[in-house]
Amino acid sequence: MKNIARNLFYVFIAFISISLLFSTYLSPTQNKTDMDITTMVEKINNGDVKSIKIINDKIDLTLKDDTVAEVSKEPTESLGELFKNYNVNPDQLKQVKVEVTQDSSVDSWLKLLLPFLIPFVLVAAFIYIMMRQVQGANSRAMMFGQSKAREVAPQDKKNKVTFRDVAGAKEAKEELAEIVEFLKNPKKFINLGARIPKGVLLVGPPGTGKTLLSRAVAGEANVPFFSISGSEFVEMFVGVGASRVRDLFRKAKRNSPCIVFIDELDAVGRQRGAGLGGSNDEREQTLNQILVEMDGFDVTTNIIVIAATNRPDILDAALLRPGRFDRRVVLDAPSIDDREAILKVHARKKPFSDDVDLRKVAQRTPGFTGADLNNLLNEAAIFAARKNKTKIDLADILESIEKVILGPERKSHLLSEHEKKVTAYHEAGHALVAHELPNADPVHKVSVVSRGRAAGYTLKLPLRDKYLQTKEEFLAELAVLVAGHVTEKEVFGDVTTGASNDLREATKITKQLIMQYGMSDVLGQRTFGKREELIFLGKEITEQRDYSEKVAEQIDGEISRFIADAIKTALNIIKKKRNKMDDIVEVLMKKETIEQAEFEAIFDEGKEKSNITEVIS
Ligand code: ADP
Ligand code: MG
Ligand code: ZN
Structural domain boundaries of the chain? Predict the structure, then answer.
């Protein structure tokens, strides 16, 4: 943009100057009338002429009435001869002021040269502008090797993040507090002969606050913070990555003590010699350069490199050895207490109505990361604003939880009456089986309003955060998953495409159960398949088989058996509790959604009724 503006400016200047030149060249300074020599002589003899000015072969004649006339004469003939030849009255001539000037050279030269000069100037200006642009591009090319690291200086109060802004993550903060101490007071450690750690690796799933935490370290230690993402090292041109690494560390050394933060380290730090595609070599060079730089600082260079990744398993072993990223800080998806704390951090600047209990929100959001929770409150604020409320209430938050989990509601996606009925039975099947199996997660909501890609949904939430899952829980989950499909078949005698997602999920879980967790009695306690973490076009392309053809067959058999068992369990429940299912469907057809309390009530009501019938009979 700046360039275009500048060029326009040049063109404008050129245009102005050219038009100025032309105007001086073309327009006469005074209005002169042409006159022939005989008339001139006549005028002189009559005493009408005030003065004569001779410029080369032109005679400017100023008359008594101040008009100016121009007379041409032969260049060879002198004025004296001319007057003599034409018999000018010498007495009259004495009255006239005669002035002979050599044509003022600038003017005449300009007049002579301008026709050549203008195109020349134009071309020169054009070349000049082109040159400048090329130079600009050149200097940009020179900039290429420079790191694009963003710096947050300690004076920058607005972007400053401290540990206060990071909720939960207690262990990680403790570990990093030590790093802050190193940066603030290195002497204390050096005097005891301790080696200051050079690298800290933050490991955790996306959105758990790795970037945030490393910025907090810089904020706490009050040192400059250089951040760059791993993917920014690698560009189209060979050697750029390595040169960017060099530049980054050069900058860092100038500003030491400081923190260098490399986000998404896995983009460059993947195991060497294992990649696919042409950029592999480039990546290796970049990685090598990082290793060289990290080895390069001595004890007194007070730079700490913090790197973040969600794939520590694929990092090159050389990165992880002592003296490089030898400290690991693990960030996990937050626990319920941490979630509450994170919600509190993000709730600081938002007005909530009194019915909002952040603890309850935390309960409803197992598996949410810090980023999800931040997003959740933001969505809730948007919902509230859309409804012109001044405060965010619980309904807004619940609504946005579902939006974050399942995608936005699609009210316009209207189901026909029959489709709605099929969907209602499908969801009622999921919900019923989930309710009846003690190991399944309780049902929070059933709905036939479509969301994202699903026609309806049954929202189940675990009672507590789960770190370990038992086989019984897996089996219950499987039965719940197939229940939709089973119900459709049982009630309508036919199945729809609505169940395909459920079946895919069920197959995936069964596969994990057998192949990763060793939960199959037939195949025994071992894992099957070695996952090669080759990432190509964003997808894992290989799952290496480390078992025989025969075992593969057995695995397939086991998968089918697990699913068949799940179908049996589900079918049993559905047949036994068909009347409950019909009750659920009735409500769904009327109200489209059932919340947890109402859902439980359907079952309690039944109990009362059956008690009564018992009393009667
Ligand atoms: P990562 O780098 O691990 O993918 P980020 O550090 O970028 O995740 O986190 C994204 C956002 O999530 C942060 O900007 C912050 O708003 C929120 N967040 C994550 N973890 C926390 C936390 N522990 N406390 C407060 N906010 C958090
Ligand atoms: Mg990040
Ligand atoms: Zn389903």
Answer: 2-107, 150-330, 336-406, 417-616
Residues whose CB falls within 8 Å of the CB of residue 604, separated by 6 or more in sequence, listed in order: none
CA 304 to ligand 1 centroid distance, Å:
21
Q: For residue 495, how many other CB atoms are within 10 A of its CB?
A: 17
Which ligand 1 atom is nearest residue 371's CA?
A: 12
Q: Is the CB of 371 under 6 A from ligand 1?
A: yes
How far apart, in whole angstroms, are the C-alpha atoms of residue 602 and residue 59? 119
Cβ(62) to ligand 1 under 6 A? no
The question of whether 427 is a catalytic residue gets the answer yes
User: What tokens appear for 334 in the block?
Assistant: 């937050």
What secondary structure letter does DSSP report for 584? H
Residues constituting the chain: 617
Q: Which of 248-262, 267-281, 425-439, 517-531 has the lowest mean pLDDT?
A: 267-281
> Best substitution site from 161, 176, 208 to test ligand 1's pocket, by max atoms within 8 Å of Cβ?
208
Under a CB-based contact definition with an 8 Å cutoff, are residues 431 and 461 in contact?
Answer: no
Catalytic residue among 232, 282, 427, 558: 427
In terms of CATH architecture, what is 336-406? Orthogonal Bundle (1.10)
Report whether 225 contacts 259 (CB < 8 A): yes
Rounded average pLDDT over 540-560: 81
CATH architecture of 150-330: 3-Layer(aba) Sandwich (3.40)
Topology (CATH level 3) of domain 2-107: 3.30.720
pLDDT value, residue 343:
93
Does residue 327 contact residue 203 with C-beta atoms inside 8 Å? no
pLDDT per position as a tens digit, 223-255: 888 888 887 776 656 677 788 888 888 888 888
Ligand 1 contacts CB of residue 166 (under 6 A): yes
Whether the bond between 119 and the residue before it is cis, its omega within 30 degrees of 0, is: no
Q: Is the pLDDT of residue 617 over 80?
A: no
Lowest mean pLDDT, pick from 154-158, 264-268, 467-471: 154-158
For the 417-616 domain, the top CATH level (class) is mainly alpha
User: Residue 219's closest CA among 158, 148, 149?
Assistant: 158
* Per-residue confidence (pLDDT) for residue 430, from 0 to 100: 93
Using one digit for the tens of pLDDT, what is the confidence trace for 465-504? 777 889 999 999 999 999 999 999 999 998 888 888 889 9
Q: Which of 41-55, 371-385, 480-494, 591-605 has the lowest mean pLDDT?
A: 41-55
Which one, of 530, 465, 450, lies nearest residue 498 by Cα?
450
